[in-house]
Each structure stands twice: as C-alpha cells, then as structure tokens.
Amino acid sequence: MSDSTRLKSAIESLVSVRTFPDHARSVFTEFRLALTRGEIRAAEKINGQWTVNPWVKQGILLGFRIGELKEMSDGEVLNFVDKDTFPARRLTLADRVRVVPGGSSIREGAYVAPSVVCMPPMYINVGAYVDEGSMIDSHALVGSCAQIGKRVHLSAAAQIGGVLEPINAAPVIIEDDVLVGGNCGVYEGTLVRSRAVLGAGTILTRSTPLYDLPRGEVYRATGDQPLEVPENAVVVPGSRAVTKGKGVEWNLSLYTPVIVKYRDEKTDRGVELEDWLR
C-alpha cells in the first residue's frame, strides 16, 4: 500500500467519528506534511484531465475540527490567534523560495516549489499548490486548494479564490505560463488554461459568461463543469447591454469578460519582462 493510499484510508476513517482517537493528531500532521511537500494535492492532472481528490479536502477540514485556538507570535512584533493545526510555514534556504521581506505569509499545508518568488505582502492558504518559476505579487492571494502552474505571474492584488466545500468541487486552477493581471479575481473553480492572459481587472466566476469574439462563442459553467478559459486566450473586462425592463430605458450595461484575441508574438513580447523579474 502506498503512503498516499494509507493516508487516504486513515483520513476517511477519522472524518466520520465524533470523538477523535489519540492518534488523530499524528495522522493529520503526517497528512499536512505530505501537502507541504507536494506529495498529495487537492486536484491533479491525469491523462490530460483535471481530477479532484475529495479526501484531501476532507483532511484539511479535519485539521480545523481537531485544532484548538492558540496564540502564535513572532517575537514582540507579530501576534496571531489561529488553530494550532495550521501554523504559518517557516521557509529555509533549502526550500529555494524567495520571500521578500514585508509581511507575507504562507500556511503549513501549502506547497510552494523551488524558484517561486513571493513579493510582499501576499498570502498562500492551506492546500494550495504553486509550481516552479511562478511569482505571487504584492497583495495577491492564493486561496485554499488553488492550483497554480509553472511560470505563472499573479500580478498585484490578484485574488485566486479558495474552494474547500463542497469537497467534490474543483478548486480554481491556473495552468502553466498564465499571466493574471492586477486586481483580477478568479473564483468558484474557474479553470484558466495554459498561456492565457487575463487583463487587469478581469473577474471570472461560475455565473459569469465569457464571450469569445474571435471564435464567436460564449462559454459558461454548467452543473458539473466550471467556467473554462481556453489556451492562449487574451481576456479583458467588457460589458453587455441590458435588453429588458428599466435597463433599456436607463441605458444600463452589465460587466462581462471578453476574449479579444489569442496570444501572438506581440502579446509574447509584452510579457517578456516577467522573466527578468524572476
């Protein structure tokens, strides 16, 4: 039996109990360490398809149930009160992750690959997975269980929402080489395919239709599938007219994201500077 299979069985057996046995904390600690090392993930790509691992979310929720409130301090300057099962992560040189001084925080149970750059202040929540060469810029959030690919740039104030419940729901997934512009928000399990570019201020949710001008398509989330941004798509904030009721009389419009083109040489030149920042 593999370590992940054994952990899965142990977590699932603890989820249904009301009184935790003595070994519950040691099981959770082992689980959290596996998350931190990237050995298990809330979602992973198998044969080209993203697959959710509900038991991993169950394990994270279990940690909140087991945990007790504790004062956590860093010298005389910073003081926090949180569940003792989810302390802030302390990185070392061996992790090969740049965390620039200025108030950033990474929670234990988040995987951050070597060569990731963290600009202050930013936050990476439990269950998140941030792959090699990515940059998390100032005031950016990587929510619980979010999956961030290689060489992604989350620009200043970008918000990648967390999805813990329901446990079988897909987290937000940002694939390789995506540029997420400043003040963007990606929520509710949205899937952004590789090399897409989200212009500053773009908001993507399950209830937001995505209009593709070059292809003449409209993309929407369905009951069991999230909103999906195609590979190489360049998305910017747009609007569409309200065509009913007072909206027509008042000349109102609603926000909507719009694909204005697909990535080309000009777009690539525009994002080349990202490499220098790393």
Strand content of the residues, in percent?
25-35%
Q: State the helical fraction.
A: 10-25%
Structural class: alpha/beta
Poorly predicted ranges: none
State mean pLDDT (0 to 100 scale): 93
Q: Helical element count?
A: 6
Shape: globular
**Rg calc:** 20 Å
> Biggest sheet: strands side by side, in what order?
5-8-11-14-17-20-25-26-22-23
Largest sheet: 10 strands, mixed
What is the total tally of β strands?
26
* Amino- and carboxy-terminal Cα gap: 40 Å
Summarize this entry quickly.
This protein has 278 residues and is of the alpha/beta class.
List keywords for this structure.
278 residues, alpha/beta, ten-stranded mixed beta sheet, six-stranded parallel beta sheet, 26 strands
Write the layout of secondary structure elements.
Elements: H1 3-15, H2 24-36, E1 43-46, E2 49-52, H3 54-66, E3 69-74, E4 78-83, E5 98-99, E6 105-106, E7 111-112, E8 117-118, E9 123-124, E10 129-130, E11 135-136, E12 141-142, E13 147-148, E14 153-154, E15 159-160, E16 173-174, E17 179-180, E18 185-186, E19 191-192, E20 197-198, E21 203-204, E22 210-212, E23 217-219, E24 228-229, E25 233-241, H4 246-249, E26 253-262, H5 265-271, H6 273-277
Parallel strand pairs: 5-8, 6-9, 7-10, 8-11, 9-12, 10-13, 11-14, 12-15, 13-16, 14-17, 15-18, 16-19, 17-20, 18-21, 19-24, 20-25, 22-26
Antiparallel strand pairs: 1-2, 3-4, 22-23, 25-26
Overall description:
This protein is α/β, with parallel strands linked by helices and 278 residues long. It is built from six helices and 26 strands. The protein has a ten-stranded mixed sheet with strand order 5-8-11-14-17-20-25-26-22-23, with no helix packed on it. Strands 6-9-12-15-18-21 form a six-stranded parallel sheet, with no helix packed on it. The longest helix is centred in the first third of the chain and has 13 residues, at 3-15. The two termini are 40 Å apart.
